[in-house]
C-alpha cells in the first residue's frame, strides 16, 4: 500500500462549509490543500485542526478571481506531484460571495465580482485541474452551487445566475471528461449554519426554518459528508449530477 496521500484542493477552505469539507476529506486520507486569499490565520487554524486529528494538510494562498494566481497555484501542485508522486484527485470549488440586492439597484461592479468569484473562478480552476487529472486518468470535481441556483430567489439575481451557471458547467464538463474517468458533480446546499446565518435574528431564522420541511438548518458537516462521498470510489458511477442538500426546501 502506497504511503503517498492523494491531493485534494478545496477553494475557500479557511472557514464555514469549506473548512468542514477539508477536514472531512483529510479524514478519508487526502492531503488537503487549504485555499485562502486573505485570512491566513484561519487557514492555518484549519490545517492545525486537521493535523491534530491525524490528517494531512497545508495552506495554499491564491485569489480565485485571478487567472494568473490560479495558474501559479496549479504549477505548485504539478511540481508537488512530480516530487512526491501525489496526484491531484479531487477539486472542490467552494469559494464564493453573495452581494444581495434587487436588480434595479444592482451595480455592474457587484455583478462582476459575484460572477467572477462564484462562476468564472470555478471554470478556470476546473480547466487547470483537468490538465492534471487527465494525465492520471482519474479525478473527481465537485462544485458547491446553491439551492438558489435551482429555484431562484428575489434579491439574489447575480448570485442565483452564478450558481445556476455552475450547474451548467457541471453537466457540460462531465460529458467532456468522462472518457478520461474524471467525474464532475454539483452539490446544492440550502440554508446551512454559517457566519451568515448566525448573524440573522431569531425572527429571521424562524421564518427560514418554517419553509424547511425537516424543520431545521443544515450544518457544514452535512455538506462535507456528501462531498466526501462524491470524492471517493464508492461514487464511481455518479457524474454530471446535481444533488440537493436542503432539508426539503426545494424538491
Adjacency order of strands in the biggest sheet: 3-2-1-4-5-6-7
Number of strands: 7
Low-confidence stretches: none
Q: Please indicate the percent range of residues in DSSP E strands (runs of 2 or more).
A: 15-25%
Judging by the overall fold, what is the CATH architecture?
A: 3-Layer(aba) Sandwich
The N- and C-terminal alpha carbons lie at a distance of 43 Å
Shape: globular
SSE class: alpha/beta
SSE run: EHEHEHEHEHHEHHHE
Q: Tally the structural domains.
A: 1
Q: How would you describe the oligomerization state of the chains in this entry?
A: single chain
Would you kindly provide a brief summary of this structure?
The chain is of the alpha/beta class. The chain has 9 helices and 7 strands; from the N terminus they run E-H-E-H-E-H-E-H-E-H-H-E-H-H-H-E.
How would you describe the overall organization of this protein?
Strand 4, helix 4 and strand 5 form a beta-alpha-beta unit. With 251 residues, the protein is α/β, with parallel strands linked by helices. The protein has one domain: NAD(P)-binding Rossmann-like Domain (Rossmann fold, 3-Layer(aba) Sandwich). Helix 1 packs parallel to helix 2, helix 3 packs parallel to helix 4 and helix 4 runs parallel beside helix 6. It has nine helices and seven strands; from the N terminus they run βαβαβαβαβααβαααβ. The protein has a seven-stranded parallel sheet with strand order 3-2-1-4-5-6-7, with helices on both faces.
Amino acid at each position: 500500500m502506497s504511503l503517498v496521500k492523494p491531493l485534494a484542493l478545496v477553494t475557500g477552505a479557511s472557514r464555514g462549509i469549506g473548512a468542514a469539507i477539508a477536514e472531512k476529506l483529510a479524514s478519508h486520507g487526502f492531503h488537503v490543500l487549504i485555499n485562502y486569499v486573505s485570512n491566513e490565520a484561519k487557514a492555518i487554524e484549519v490545517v492545525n485542526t486537521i493535523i491534530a486529528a491525524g490528517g494531512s494538510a497545508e495552506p495554499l494562498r491564491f485569489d480565485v478571481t485571478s487567472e494568473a494566481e490560479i495558474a501559479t497555484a496549479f504549477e505548485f501542485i504539478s511540481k508537488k506531484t512530480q516530487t512526491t508522486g501525489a496526484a491531484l484527485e479531487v477539486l472542490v470549488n467552494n469559494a464564493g460571495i453573495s452581494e444581495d440586492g434587487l436588480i434595479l439597484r444592482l451595480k455592474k461592479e457587484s455583478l462582476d465580482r459575484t460572477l467572477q468569484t462564484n462562476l468564472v473562478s470555478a471554470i478556470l480552476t476546473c480547466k487547470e485541474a483537468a490538465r492534471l487529472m487527465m494525465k492520471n486518468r482519474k479525478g473527481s470535481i465537485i462544485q458547491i452551487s446553491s439551492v438558489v441556483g435551482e429555484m431562484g430567489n428575489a434579491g439574489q439575481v447575480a448570485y442565483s445566475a452564478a450558481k445556476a451557471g455552475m450547474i451548467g458547467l457541471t453537466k457540460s464538463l462531465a460529458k467532456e471528461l468522462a472518457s478520461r474517468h474524471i467525474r464532475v458533480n454539483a452539490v446544492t446546499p440550502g440554508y446551512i449554519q454559517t457566519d451568515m446565518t448566525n448573524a440573522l435574528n431569531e425572527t429571521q431564522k424562524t421564518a427560514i426554518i418554517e419553509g424547511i420541511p425537516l424543520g431545521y438548518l443544515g450544518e457544514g458537516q452535512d455538506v462535507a459528508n456528501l462531498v466526501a462521498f462524491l470524492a471517493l470510489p464508492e461514487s464511481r458511477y455518479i457524474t454530471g449530477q446535481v444533488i440537493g442538500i436542503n432539508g426539503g426546501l426545494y424538491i
